[in-house]
Structures are given as C-alpha cells and as structure tokens.
C-alpha cells in the first residue's frame, strides 16, 4: 500500500507551508482496543476537527486508510551526543532519526562534552533543537557537576533557563551517594523537577561486561548482577518516599526491579519508570559470539526478565518506553567485546519493537501504546503540549503508523549518523508513514520532509 | 572444523582424534630428526596480545616441527585499546596470507572477533577469562598417558575458577571425554550459575582429595585479595593450597597437575610441585605434541602426517 499526499488546490505551492492538512480515514485508538476510523483536520498547528467530514478547501490531503493515528511519540531518554561527539550524532541528525521513528519530542541526555550541567549548555542544546526543527528537544540537566557524582549542578538555573529543564539525570553514571541523591530529590521539588536515576551500584559492577548469570559464567565476561540495579532502585524508592519527591527510574532491566517498583507504587511512592525496546525483546544469550552490537548498559538480561518487563509495562508498573538511543561510530563497536562502547541506536525501530513485543502479543492495545510512548513520558517530563489526546483544540503532534508491512532492519536506511543497531537483518513489523509536529509534517510517505 | 576457539565445540570423536594424533606425533619428538614436511609452505602466525613466552614457544615448536613458516606478532596490551585495532591487525595478517592464526589475548572472546576478519584457521591460545582449549587438550593427553583412561576419571580442579580459562576449557573437554569433574574453591572464586556446569562443586578440599584420581591446582593471583575474594594469601594457602600433608590424602596412583606458571607456596608447595606425582614437566612436553596435532588437523597438511614422509 502506498500513501499519497495531494494538495487539493495550488494554494500551498505559492509560498510557505500549508496551514491546513486533512488526514483521511485513519484509525484512532480508543478504549477497549477499539479503533475508530475518522478524518482529522489540522489547521494552524492544531487539530481542528476529528469527524467524518471531508477536506476543507486548500488542505493538503493525506491518505490515512489502514494507518493508525497516535499522538506524537515522546522519548524521555535520547543521547544526541552534541556537543562533543558530533561524529556519532548531532542534534540535527538525531532529531531527524526521531521524526522518522514517529517522535515529536525527545529529552536529550546530559552526558555530552561539555556535560549539560549549566544553563549555558542546556540552552545551547535547546537552541540547536529549535533550529533543526524536526522535533522538540528538551535537554536533561546533569544532577551533579560534570556527572562526577560529588557536587550538585546548578539545577535551579537550568530549570529557569530557556530550556526549562524538568528532568535531571547523570545517566551513564549512577548518583550512588545516598546523601547526594536525597538532596537532589528534595531540591528539585521547588520547580516540579524529577531525578531520573541510572540505577547501577558502582562497586558491584566494577569492570562489568554483561548480565551476570549462566552466559557470563561460560563466556568468562565480568558480570553485571541484577542486584546492582535492584539495590539502588529500592534505596531510591525509600528516599523518594521519605522526602516526598518524584523519582524516575531509567531503563529498568530486571524482573526484581519490576517487583520493587510495584511494591513502591502500592505504597504511594511518587516513582515512575521506563523500559527500553531492546530490553523488551533481546536476551543475554545473544552475546555468545561476543558481537558488541549487543553490548549495552544496563545489559541484556534473561528471558524471565524480558517476560517480567513486558508484564510490568502492560500493567503500568513501568510507565513508559524510552529508547536510550545511544549512537556510536563504527570503530567503537568494531573491536573486542571488552573494549567496545555500550549502547544501541533505537529511535527508528522503537515503535516497531513495541508493536512486536507488546501489541502482537496482546499485552497492549494501540491506546496503551499511545499512553506508554506519548502521554506518560510527556507527563513525567512535564511537557504541556506533547502527549495530548487526538482531539479538537489539541496541538497537532501526531504519528501515522502502518502496522501491515514487515521488513528486515537495514541500518543503511537510518537517518541517524550511527548504525549500531542490534536488529540488523531482523524482521520487524510496521512503518511510520507520517509525523506531524504542530501540524507541520516532518515525515511524509515514510520520508523526511 | 575450521577453528579451535572453545573446547566445548569439540565432539567426543574430535577430541579423541586430536589426542590419538598427538600420541603418534609425540614419537616425532623422540627422533633425531624432529621434523615432518606436513605443513611445508603454510604460514602460522603467533598473534600475542599478552605476554606468554611459554605458550608461544610451545606453538612455535609445534608449527616448526611440521615445517610451517612461523611469524611471531606481538602486540603490547596497552597500545590495543588506543590505536591499532584487532581488525586492522587481522587485515594485515590476511594480506600476509596466514593459513593459521594462534591468538593469545587478554579480552575474552577476541578469537571469535578475529575469526570474522580472517580466512585462515583461528586457534585460541587463551582469551581473557574465557578458554584455553589446547591447555585442556594437553591436560587430557597427560592424564590419559599417566592413568591409561579418561572415562570415569575423577578430576578435582582447585582454585580461582572464576578467572580461569584453563578451568572453563577443562570442564567442557573432560565432560565430553567422560571424566567426572569436581571444582573446589572458596565460593567467591566460583562463577554465579556454576551449578549449570557439567560438574560437581565443593568448598572443602580435604574431603575431595581422597576421591580424586587427578588434582589440578589453578594459579591464584595474590592481587585477588585486594578485591576481597579471600582475606589473605596465608588463609587461602591454608584452606586451598596443596602441601605434602594434604597430598598424602590422595589415592596412591593419583597425579598432581598445574597449568603453570605456579605460585610456589601459594596454591602449591614446592615439595608437591617437585614430587613424583607431579606431571608439571611432562605437561610442557605434551603441549608441543597436542599443538602439533591441532595444527595438523586444522590446517590439513597436504602430506600425510603419519606413516609416510621421512619415516
Ligand atoms: Zn543509563
């Protein structure tokens, strides 16, 4: 099936972008797994109408038949690498990848060079996002200066900057000092911020190369035990409850972590959590021939963990999916396992992997996908204009997804500068056909606009 | 078989073929002319990212006795992580036309990566804390020579199993060959999930010794105590070291093995290492025979190795 875009009149051709867009016959997810077929009229960046009505004069018409309309996806965890590692990714290339993946907003992680630990750096990243224009870029601020884990960064200055930072994280490193973590949690309450913790007890993971278990024992690779994640999550849930603050847990990867989160939520702790697409699909036995494509932090775990993560995402114990898109240049992965960089690109495959692992398994319907990949991450990041329902008057941030085609992942087709995908040659379902950012197409017919 | 990277990849018949071939090739070492023309015109590269003169010399002697051209390529460990990559080195070896690459590397799994970038056979001469299959083969060869069999042989492996490539290869190979392996170590030096391995596990050396036909002592680095694997060298030695008094608990014909290099006074007492039970010197000689067999079988010499040629 191809999806054609036609301009009903020549009005748009003369100058500037079309102000009106008409999506014909797309399926809108509703409660109970229902899909309602409707036309979506977009005008001046907002959804003007959701109805059976035909196109207004001068509108660009998008054929939505067979497509699922989702609110624009929001990523809480993206490594855009700029400033510092522009050889791996830039704000421009990373946000193009995001748009291709159906995202209308990403949170840019702070572990850049220089680290995003001042108002100046977060404003720089925010401005680069504005200039690129492929999706909204919300910088994450570092919790500690230089992500060194010893002194708080100027969290308030970053919150008050143009970048309006609400999510703070030392991602890549754990805020392991319990006192510092407590203070950070308390401090950001003043501006409704949240600390996003990379939960990794550092002493238990010195030199760690992969999940600790039967596979690491056989391969002779130093283990990254589940308990090193779970111990920090348990501690941080207790701290967050004690000081009445918001905690967000990055890339939850173990069954035990899901259990701890379920317990903490049952006590009313303000904790949210994310899971990556790769932890929903891949397991540690893939490491058997030491291919660094599978090297990631936290590491790929066991089938039992994958099962528990899917169940946790389905029942809401895990609030959202976040990509942990981590681009690396070719040479960073073309080496011995122990010397290779950790991380995988994920923006352009995220929705397909969630489709495969959650929708095709019956664990989540499309309304659930909209909640976990758009509404929930927007709420956690306090983004007022993202993750909104597809209703009249709402900002026209949306994604049209064709669930029908299946294809093998070809990294050469990525918009990302990097190719470090673990899905090379794997067959995944679905394809993002169009992405609209405030009514303006960033992707049409699967191609960047 | 193209490569020898993991002892776990060897079937029972593969392993027996290597041992039998080594047995016949051992006779070459006993002759005045110690050379066979089998691998004439073939190039074997010893690619060593980690210093190990003993292992390199053993492979070099094996290759030369089969008349192969030998190139020694040593890469300093520190220059690897920054600068010359394993891939670039592999492409260089390709250009030199290496038929076989013997690789010793401090990173587990490096031979698998190398095998993706070269066409020749890759022989693992020890990779990180993963495997050392020719060591396990020479150990099995030594046991069979001394004790006449491998099936149902009771082999006790003692020490730092967690960090030992020798232990991993031995457990896999000895299991394939029908021996019964028991690992003895403090719990800190056993990998998580060791219960999934095809062997028994015990913490008490004294009770394991009387039930052992073979006791293999692994090298234990003193530095491990800095990472709290054990409290002190003295305590380790007292609980897990093999001294003369402990050795007396072994059955009469039991043998004592060590892959070397030894820490005399740590895991093994000097009087044990030098006792008639010790096979440590034979292990070195047997290493050459076993490595000749591996090179011969993998590189598939055009001349018959046995029964022809210069005999
Ligand atoms: Zn992280």
UniProtKB/TrEMBL annotation, chain A:
Chain residues that bind Zn(2+) 2:
171, 198, 251
According to the record, cofactor stoichiometry and binding are noted as: Binds 2 Zn(2+) ions per subunit.
Give residues annotated as binding substrate: 79-81, 111, 297, 328
Q: Which residues form a coiled coil?
A: none
Q: What is its EC number?
A: 3.5.2.3
Catalytic residues at 324
Q: Which pathway does the database say it acts in?
A: Pyrimidine metabolism; UMP biosynthesis via de novo pathway; (S)-dihydroorotate from bicarbonate: step 3/3
Q: Which cofactor does it need?
A: Zn(2+)
Keywords, A to Z?
Answer: Hydrolase, Metal-binding, Pyrimidine biosynthesis, Zinc
Spell out the Pfam families in the cross-references: DHOase
Known catalysed reaction(s)?
(S)-dihydroorotate + H2O = N-carbamoyl-L-aspartate + H(+)
What GO CC terms are in its UniProt record?
cytoplasm
Recall the GO molecular function terms of this protein's record: allantoinase activity; dihydroorotase activity; zinc ion binding
InterPro entries linked? DHOase, DHOase/Allantoinase_Hydrolase, DHOase_cat, Dihydroorotase_CS, Metal-dep_hydrolase_composite, Metal_Hydrolase
Q: Where does Zn(2+) 1 bind?
A: 77, 79, 171, 324
Q: Which HAMAP family match?
A: PyrC_classI_B
Say what the protein does.
Catalyzes the reversible cyclization of carbamoyl aspartate to dihydroorotate.
User: What PANTHER family does the database record attribute to this sequence?
Assistant: ALLANTOINASE
Family classification: Belongs to the metallo-dependent hydrolases superfamily. DHOase family. Class I DHOase subfamily.
List the protein's name: Dihydroorotase
- Record the organism: Allonocardiopsis opalescens
TrEMBL record, chain B:
Q: In which pathway does it act?
A: Pyrimidine metabolism; UMP biosynthesis via de novo pathway; (S)-dihydroorotate from bicarbonate: step 2/3
Which Pfam families does the record cross-reference, listed alphabetically? Answer: OTCace, OTCace_N
Name the reaction it catalyses: carbamoyl phosphate + L-aspartate = N-carbamoyl-L-aspartate + phosphate + H(+)
Residue positions annotated to bind L-aspartate are 82, 165, 219
Q: Say what the protein does.
A: Catalyzes the condensation of carbamoyl phosphate and aspartate to form carbamoyl aspartate and inorganic phosphate, the committed step in the de novo pyrimidine nucleotide biosynthesis pathway.
Q: State whether it acts alone or in a complex, and with which partners, per the record.
A: Heterododecamer (2C3:3R2) of six catalytic PyrB chains organized as two trimers (C3), and six regulatory PyrI chains organized as three dimers (R2).
Q: What family is this?
A: Belongs to the aspartate/ornithine carbamoyltransferase superfamily. ATCase family.
NCBIfam families in alphabetical order: asp_carb_tr, PRK00856.1
Name of the molecule in the record: Aspartate carbamoyltransferase
Q: Which organism is it from?
A: Allonocardiopsis opalescens
Specify the taxonomic lineage.
Answer: Bacteria, Bacillati, Actinomycetota, Actinomycetes, Streptosporangiales
Gene symbol?
A: pyrB
